[in-house]
Amino acid sequence: MENSTLIKSSHLLAILLLLLFPDPSTPSPPPSPVSCTNGRTNNCTVTNAYGMFPDRSTCHALKVVYPNSEQELLQFVANGTASKTKMKVVTRFSHSIPKLSCPGGSNGLVISTLNLDDVLNIDKTTMQITVESGITVKALIEAAAKANLVIPYVPYWFGLTIGGLLSTGAHGSSLNGKGSAVHEYVTEMRVVTPAPADENYARVRALKIGDPDLDATKVSLGVLGVISQVTLQLQPMFKRSLTYVTRNDSDLADQAVSFGYQHEFADLAWYPAQRKVLYRKDDRVPVNVSGNGAYEFIGFRPTATLAIQTNRITEKAFETEKDADGKCGYSQFATSTLALLSYGLTNNGIIFTGYPVIGYQNKMEASGGCAFGLEDGLLTACPWDPRIKGTTLFHQTTVSIPLDRVKEFILDLQKLRDLQPAALCGLELYDGVLMRYSKSSSAYLGKEADVLDFDFTYYRSRDPMTPRLYEDFLEEIEQIALFKYGGLPHWGKNRNLAFDGVIKRYKNSQAFLEVKNRYDPEGLFSSEWSDQILGINGSVIVNKAGCALEGLCVCSEDMHCAPDKGYYCRPGKIYEDARVCTYEDSSTGNLKFTS
């Protein structure tokens, strides 16, 4: 074993100790996505929760406002419309990776929903809850639970706001009933949009089930106006019984679709280099079944800053040295540690004693403790907090594959994996390939079919011109998913190339654009980015040196890769139509492979 590997092994031990014995103080909450040099008025910058957009651009705005009510929101939109000011909404933490919250230019207005976070009404008879759009999933779950009600399906991270998650079509995992997308449970919505002068430049549009415009506003990308209030259909409180089972992935292609129908809250975590799959057997059970379990996912808990930095330093060292052996060993350690800590599950809110874990829905469906707490001087934080020097930085490729094509897609990925298993070890450092189920939607920009959503998270360098270890394998997976299988990208995740021409794959895209033109004819809530992804003007593709490394383009010439570092544009290994940045070097001794 080389000295560098010994050093990295000590880093692994340090991380384990820091995970098992975290700092007891409350976590530092994430920073605001908006900062201004002169209070709230001048020279504002807008970013996301990760401190970096896919193209690494800096988003500027002239001003940010914080309405406290729908009436104030109406006035802010009216003022912006009267002055023909570009406007965008920003949420509490701004978790969308693409530039959805950037108004464009430098004179735009940013409208924050931070203070629009109240529960307005809970009707126990109809089992409906009305909330302001800035309320977090955490607060929504807690308010419903006090009335002995639950929202059946939500994303696993409860730091999202209801307005933000609806705008991007965020979802949990289920093929039951209407499926796992939160927008399928919207019964009413109030949206503030621009209006002509004779309507005082802004109006509130109140939409209910049966109004066709609701299918546009349920997943709107923020280009129709500002969601003010949302009414959601809830269900009576129930419990869930969850058991994780690890199996070999030899029959994953055959099992992936059927497993989704066997368990209401099923999902899969695939560790392709280890040839393992973590099956989530998760179903609702009556409230009288014994159990008081909870799920606080390890990756969403407050993490000691030292552990965050150590983790990044270690992974960066593997990348820099092209040490595939080290990265694979590290990934095995990471997945084993998660299993050792039971992924964050407890049977009584304190300790894990064994499966199944049975608990109330409001304690099992989502988590995110690292986002909520008092400032502790960054002793602890969320692992991606951009204020930490040496914080986690990653790309996310999240693509929905129609269920009738999932088997072929998985077989292709396994075929690619078999060429070099070490190429996919990096995915396992980010909890593997998360696979979640979702159903087709009536929303114009929702799912076009019943799908399995594949979530690939992987290393991103601080230097945009630095390739990743096995750059070509991950690029080929991305292109197989998007181009060979026609997968649809998650609106709130992904790199630029995922959105190239994607609007053409939505059968109701023209209906959505018609609503957009009625609600905001001057495009005040549109930006250069939204015009590009909606096919209105321009392209998300940025052809320049190194563009393929960041997903800003698909390489068509060597300069799009990093020829000075030995990475050249080449065809894919199993998908010949792919064009990927492949490492070629006469001295193969610099690239270490696992057996």
Question: How is this structure best described in words?
Answer:
- The protein is α+β, with helices and mostly antiparallel strands and 595 residues long.
- The chain is 25% helix and 23% strand.
- The protein has an 8-stranded antiparallel β-sheet with strand order 20-14-16-15-23-24-22-25.
- Helix 6 (252-262) crosses helix 10 and helix 10 (406-419) runs antiparallel to helix 12.
- The protein is globular, with a radius of gyration of 23 Å.
What share of the residues lie within helices?
25-40%
Strand segment count: 27
Walk across the major sheet and give the strand order: 20-14-16-15-23-24-22-25
Q: Which residues sit in consecutive blocks of at least 5 with pLDDT less than 50?
A: 1-14, 588-595
For the termini, the CA-CA separation is 15 Å
Keywords:
globular; EC 1.1.3.8; alpha+beta; 25% helix; eight-stranded antiparallel beta sheet; oxidoreductase; ALO_C; ascorbate biosynthesis; 27 strands; disordered C terminus; 595 residues; five-stranded antiparallel beta sheet; single chain; disordered N terminus
Explain briefly what this protein structure is.
With 595 residues, the chain is an alpha+beta fold. The protein is 25% helix and 23% strand. Residues 57-237 form the FAD-binding PCMH-type domain.
Strands, helices and their partners?
Elements: H1 3-20, E1 34-38, E2 42-46, E3 59-61, E4 63-65, H2 70-82, E5 87-90, E6 109-112, E7 119-123, E8 128-132, H3 137-146, E9 149-150, H4 162-168, E10 186-194, E11 202-208, H5 214-217, E12 226-233, E13 235-236, E14 239-248, H6 252-262, E15 267-271, E16 276-285, E17 294-295, E18 303-304, H7 305-320, H8 324-340, E19 345-346, E20 357-360, H9 361-364, E21 380-381, E22 394-402, H10 406-419, H11 425-428, E23 433-438, E24 451-459, H12 471-484, E25 488-489, H13 509-519, H14 528-533, E26 567-571, E27 579-583
Parallel strand pairs: 4-6, 5-6
Antiparallel strand pairs: 1-2, 2-3, 7-8, 8-12, 9-13, 10-11, 10-12, 14-16, 14-20, 15-16, 15-23, 17-19, 18-21, 22-24, 22-25, 23-24, 26-27
